[in-house]
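Researcher: Predict the fold of TetR family transcriptional regulator.
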Amino acid sequence: MCVISTHTKQSGGLRERKKAKAMAEVQKHAMRLFREQGYKATTVEQIAEAAEISYSTFFRYFSSKEDILTRDNYDPLLNDAFERQPDGLSPLQALKNAMVSEAAKLSEDELATMRERNELTISIPELWAAMMNANTRMMELIADMVAKRIGGQSDDFAIRTLAGAVVGVNISVTLQYAEHPDADFAKLLDEALTRLEQGLPV
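Model: Structure tokens for TetR family transcriptional regulator follow.
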């Protein structure tokens, strides 16, 4: 019984990773088109054609062109990594381990695409609202994960505050990485979350 359960979880994680990589491939083609002809001039049809997928398949991955820039493909993988953390860790320690371990698995191409997405989002004012919505979704995801781990409620103020702090750290790391593309993203994330764990000393 345990063996079957573990295998199912691993298979699910593998499916999620394959989907994340497929989404990253679409994002890579989209970013090339955005560079060549501009964000506003690029259509979903052009992105689908460049990625060699159908128009309908595009919408299995993304809800809109805007979603390409704001969707984090790796949220399901973060949830799996978080659930695998040992029971003795605090929620923040478990989050740090899960986030850093998943960041360390990103390929150079995936990191480059992520950095370029962030840079473009920062440069287009109308995308900031979409990014705020994405950050809110991430906060809700983290709150749900922590609540499940400790047997609490995701709308508990303390849990929401922790989730918001982690999202704030992620924004800080994203901006730092956009300004310093030669930095190690996983190390930046580890350092920032460690500072949060230590009470944000300055």
